[in-house]
Amino acid sequence: MEDDEMNMNSFFGKLNHPKFYLTLFSVAFLYVIALLVKNPFVGDILAMTFLFGSLSLSWNILGGYGGQFSLGHAGFFGIGAYTSTLLSAHYHFNPWLGMLVGGLLAAMVGGLVFYPSFKLRGIFFCLATLAFNEVLKILAIHFRGLTGGAMGITIPFKLGLGHMMFRGKTWYMLISLSFMIAIALVTYLIEKSRFGYKLVALREDEDAAETLGISASRCKLIASVISAFFTGILGTFYARYTLLIDPESVFNVMLSVEFALLAIIGGIGTVLGPTLGAFLLIPLDSLTRGYLGGTQQGVSFFVYGALLIVVVIFLPRGIMDWVSKPFHRLFERLPDLVTKPKFLSSTEGILRGRELVMGVPSAPRSDILLKIQGVSKSFGGLQAIKKIDITIRRGEITGLIGPNGAGKTTLFNLITGFYKPDEGTIFFKDEEITGLRPPHRICKKGIGRTFQIVKPFSGLTVLDNVMAGAVEKSPNIHEARGEALGILEFVGLGKFMNLKATSLTLGRQKRLEFARALATNPVLLLLDEVMAGLNPKEIDETIGLIRSVANRGVTILVIEHVMKAIMSLSDYIIVIHHGEKIFEGKPQEVSKNEDVIRAYLGKEYKYAGR
Amino acid sequence: MSSGLTLVRNINMLGVNDIDVYYGDIQALKKVSLRAEENQIISMVGSNGAGKTTTLMTISGFNRTTSGTISFDELRIDRLGPHEIVELGLIHVPEGRMVFYDMTVMENLEMGCYSSRARKNSQNSLKEVMDLFPILRDRENQLAGTLSGGEQQMLAIGRGLMAQPRLLMLDEPSLGLAPLVVEMIFEVIKTIREKGTSILLVEQDVFHALSISNTAYVIENGEIVMEGRGEEILKDERIKEAYLGL
Fold first, then answer.
1. What's residue B1's pLDDT?
2. Nearest C-alpha of chain B: how many angstroms from A252?
3. Does the beta carbon of B85 lie under 8 angstroms from any beta carbon of chain A?
């Protein structure tokens, strides 16, 4: 195992991997093509392909990786185009400088406008961004004095690199290609970074990501700023290329749709996908229009649309999904001049990961870790929690039991920042955390949790799921990966690490949640029915696992219906019923209490305890 | 009913014969065979990932077999779609309840008798379900998503019964339920059998499941490794060791 894990694989070491030299070869190939093509029609198609590839890549950073489906990116494109054009028209700004200013302005607007929209999820975010796009277009038409209104602005032709204007298409191709490669590189770096992991995790499940300490709003903000910046920059290029900008061409909503469409067709949330989408659709669009547009008005749209439908039907998950398997087979066949690192992970990380499960026993302490006083919570007319008092001592395992619907999970949600209590206080380590939200702030305080209804990051592998728990506090990605490996090995999910999380059985998904929460290195761990779906033997294993984590000094609050587990694990048991605490005490006392037997255990309890 | 049905000779109500099922390159079931007869509880036990849920999903038409056959009432069903299998009276109550959260309890139950076969008798079925789970009558107009876990499980079983099953497949009905409710669910399972419906039960509460089963199958890594009467298997030393942790 140790041999596979390359600790500090240098950048140059990686060059020997087929993935890298093939990429370099393809890039060189594209530059050669750009230099050789002299036909202006073909040159125009290529320049547009590279431009739209770049635009779609920029959209993909927020839309693909962050899962925030923006239909307003033409807004940033237009801001970039107008900014540099106006700056050079009125203040004789160099367009390269104007390009930068336009990008920065787009980034700023992106941050300011999208930040409040992140509260909206799914289709509503989409609509908000669409509105943003339309508003910008109307503003550009309205402020005629500044923007030239619906007529737009004509850009005087001045030859030269400084003016970003050239004879022929060669330079335009080279510049747009360079942008495309640069943005693809940034995307790749994001994908491999801690930030990239966080972004993907919150795309897959925002609630689960928050409980791992990942700030959803912060990550989305950064992604939208980067995404808007590049889109704004490309606006300038477009303006210099077409020499005419007007609201209808640069603020067009159909452009926003196209950025998204190319990424979806190519493969959303991948480095290469948007480029592949552009390589397929942009030439197709230009060619159908070029050959059919003149004689048969509208036929080009028909052909383009029909091909689009074919692609969507046969490649529903994008071209990337279709080509990635043969590519990987090719990579395996090509020579790799050094070792083949499967993944990079640091040994310290692995040791730390193991430590999280099987660490050194810590000296017992018995101060109060969590104190809940008089907390109530109602939903509409239903009072789910009624003036509850709970005290959790450090280093203990506390069992929380009660009938289904008693309010146990609600209590977890109140502690972890999903709900705000109507009244009462919650103290953690002598610090008040009542109503502290959003959940990532609770995680940062040292409280981890699992969910009763599992929330795996379904598109990610088992390993990546656990890594998402470790990235927030790890100094780098290798260490996070190491920790995840260390944990997986001990919780018995090691052999499934490369499978998609959703392909696991429910019982194993519960264990994955446990592993993921553990990766945040919590002081207090809240486990919500992690043993459901396990057979008695597997329950015994899980009991052992929880004990070993507790031995390290982690305080555990566990909701469970498997009485055998609760009885043998808990130092102390709290029983709630209809949102009220009806009993608390040692395990032996609980099973004899008449109230508990009536409300929860049933007369047959001795039977269930087997 | 579909014309694709072919007759096979089989005296059992359900006959699963040597089926293989793959998920991509991974073989999930290897030559699995099961039988279920009238008025019986048949249970399947095994570790996580052994193939229990896969077996049920395959019987109800969600997975395709690469070899072997499945028959129900002498009809071959392994090439039928889930909705056609439901029409035959072979009903699956999936793991994790899967009630329709944004529909009321009554609407959920009504969806259960969607098949033309069950619709005719819907009033009778409804009465039977309500008698079995009186709490559902009180909750009739409540959204299913607001029910407690136990009530949702009752609703899921109730919805299955609305389809007038001849064979009811229950995937982990006790999952996440309080001990008191678990007792009740097992009592209900016995009642359902007494009323003439057979049950194929997948359950992690091995002790409980085996003690009410007529026949039980033990599945490991996609293969049936043992079959016998419920009580016999419960006494088997290997089973005690491997699944009961005794």
1. 41
2. 38
3. no
Q: Residue A403 phi/psi, 5° resolution?
A: -60, 160
Cβ within 8 Å, pair A404-B149:
yes
C-alpha span between A434 and A431 (Å, rounded)? 9
B207 touches chain A (CB under 8 A): yes
| CA distances from residue A41 to A74, A294, A297 in whole angstroms, order as listed | 25, 15, 20
pLDDT at position B246 is: 62
Tell me, what's the pLDDT at A290? 77
Q: pTM of the predicted model, to two decimals?
A: 0.86
Interface residue B143 vs chain A (CB under 8 A): no
* Chain B nearest C-alpha distance from A531 (Å): 8
Q: Which of A356, A373, A399 is nearest to A526 (CA)?
A: A399
The single-letter code of the amino acid at A610 is R
Separation in Å, CA A12 to CA A16, A190, A338, B30:
7, 20, 10, 47
Span B227-236, average pLDDT: 90
CA nearest to A77, candidates A137, A124, A122? A137
Residue B9, pLDDT above cutoff 70? no
Q: CA B139 to CA A554: how far, in whole Å?
A: 41
Beta bridge partner(s), residue B91: B168
Binning chain B into helix, strand and coil, the percentages to the nearest 5 are 40, 25, 35
Q: How far is CA B193 from CA A313, B187, B199, in A?
A: 46, 10, 7
Q: Which residues of A touch B210 (CB under 8 A)?
A: none
* Closest to A468 (Cα-Cα) out of A283, A255, A230, A213: A213
At CB < 8 Å, which residues of chain A contact B?
A: 401-406, 452-453, 503-508, 529, 532-540, 561, 563, 599-602, 604-605, 607-608, 610
Segments of chain A scoring below 50 in pLDDT? 1-13, 338-341, 607-610
Q: What share of chain A is helix, strand, coil (3-state, %, to 5)?
A: 60, 10, 30
Q: How far is A506 from chain B (nearest CA, A)?
A: 8
Query: Of B206, B188, B201, B203, which Cα lies nearest the Cα of B36?
Result: B201
pLDDT score of B106 more than 90: yes
Closest CA to A212 of A414, A455, A548, A380: A455
Contact between chains at B48 and A403 (C-beta distance less than 8 A): no
Residue B151: closest CA among chain A residues belongs to which residue? A404
Q: Rounded to an integer, what distance in angstroms lies between the CA atom of residue B95 and that of residue A375?
A: 34
- Give the SS3 label for residue B215: strand
Query: pLDDT of A16-34, one tens digit each?
Result: 677 788 889 999 999 999 9
Would you tell me how many other CB atoms lie within 10 Å of the CB of residue A363? 6
**Would you place residue B186 in the very low, low, confident or very high pLDDT band (cuts 50, 70, 90)?**
very high
Is the pLDDT reported for residue B202 higher than 60?
Answer: yes
